Amino acid sequence: PYDVLIVGGGPAGAAAAIYAARKGIRTGVVSERFGGQVLDTLAIENFVSVQETEGPKFATALEQHVKSYEVDIMNVQLASALVPGKLIEIKLANGGSLKSKTVVLATGARWREINVPGEREYRNHGVAYCPHCDGPLFKGKRVAVIGGGNSGVEAAIDLAGLVSHVTLIEFGDELRADAVLQRKLHSLKNVTVITSAQTTEITGDSKKVNGLVYKDRKTGAVHTVELEGVFVQIGLVPNTEWLKGTIALSRHGEIEVDAKGQTSIPGVFAAGDVTTVPFKQIVIAVGEGAKASLSAFDHLIRSSVS
Ligand code: FAD
Questions:
Q1: What atom of ligand 1 comes closest to residue 124's alpha carbon?
Q2: Tens-place pLDDT, residues 234-254
Q3: Alpha carbon separation from 103 to 107, 216, 231, 265 (Å, rounded)
């Protein structure tokens, strides 16, 4: 069996693998797609000490760093179940099974897509999901935020300080964000809020975004907003479908962890976007991955399993 088996090969999983391998213990990483969300990212400008890089380049660097240690990388493998026990079992979708004394879950999350024409075509060319990451790219430009929940309204407030104008588009008849956020939003002069609006298309000039089309759900009238960027803020979905009923999850489906990354199952730790730890960022995922691995090591040296 492995000493530490990591599920997920994004920044959190990579950091966990490096920290485990450096202890000289048997380490494995099973991942559906090594690199994770970073593979879908264009510019990364907030990974401390790296002024500027590109997602795929960063993913390659992660992989090379992990490969410089003795780590079994099992890529393009989907975990389908976790069976707790003295040895923890990870079942794979291909019928295989892996056993380990400790497990670090780092399966990350995915942004919920709005699924309208233009969204996929202009991803990274005006369509964005993360205001902390991509907000500065739209400095002085006009953007829309789709979604009037807490994350959408927070994004609009954040972006209003950077861009020239923000249009917040909410599908329902009213915003769903906390009252204090709504008050802040309404106090901003460069924000327009449009409710009862169904986004039907993100338009572009074949290179980058130039507008957003929405239908007024009350009158049926179709409107176009001219802009340079669209932030889709309709939810971040943790990749925990396969863990439901096995491990304690928050009401948003995130794995509940304590300050050490310990989950509800002894010997099982978790890190990164898949957990309840707030703010989904690479630098945070990397730190949490290191922490989960050190906690797994701590568990190993205290437990009787040999
Ligand atoms: P992920 O990167 O999501 O990795 C999860 C890993 O788990 C992947 O390898 C995946 O294949 C694997 N996996 C999932 N389910 C399974 C399963 N069942 N079995 C096996 N493997 C599984 N953050 C920044 O700090 N700066 C930025 O500029 C930035 N830009 C971004 C731009 C975009 C377009 C996106 C989408 C995100 C961006 N982020 C940015 C956020 C950042 O990418 C995430 O916070 C970070 O990748 C989280 O790392 P993670 O390891 O927790 O999860």
A1: 34
A2: 999 999 999 999 999 999 999
A3: 12, 49, 35, 10
Q: What is the best residue among 7, 38, 92 to mutate for testing ligand 1's pocket, by most ligand atoms within 8 Å of CB?
A: 38
In this predicted structure, the answer to whether residue 220 has a pLDDT above a threshold of 60 is: yes
> What mean pLDDT is predicted for residues 109-117?
96
User: What's the rounded Cα separation, in Å, for the pair 134 and 137?
Assistant: 5
Q: E-assigned strands of 196-296?
A: 197-204, 209-216, 222-226, 229-232, 236-238, 268-270
Cα separation of 287 and 15, whole Å?
7
**For residue 55, how many other CB atoms are within 10 A of its CB?**
19
- ipTM for the predicted complex comes to 0.99
Q: Is residue 166 predicted with pLDDT exceeding 90?
A: yes
- Pick from 265, 272, 249, 261: which is nearest to 296 by CA? 261
Dist. CA 167 → ligand 1 center (Å): 28
3-state secondary structure string, 15-83? HHHHHHHCCCCCEEEEECCCCHHHHHCCEECCECCECCEEHHHHHHHHHHHHHCCCCEEEECCCEEEEE
Do 122 and 209 meet the contact criterion of CB atoms below 8 Å apart? yes
Indicate if the pLDDT at residue 198 is higher than 80.
yes
**pLDDT band at 40; cut points 50, 70, 90:** confident
Q: What is the pLDDT of residue 306?
A: 52
What's the 134 CA to ligand 1 centre distance in angstroms?
15
Determine the distance separating the centroid of ligand 1 and the alpha carbon of 248, expressed in angstroms. Answer: 21
Query: Quick check: CB of 72 below 6 Å from ligand 1?
Result: no
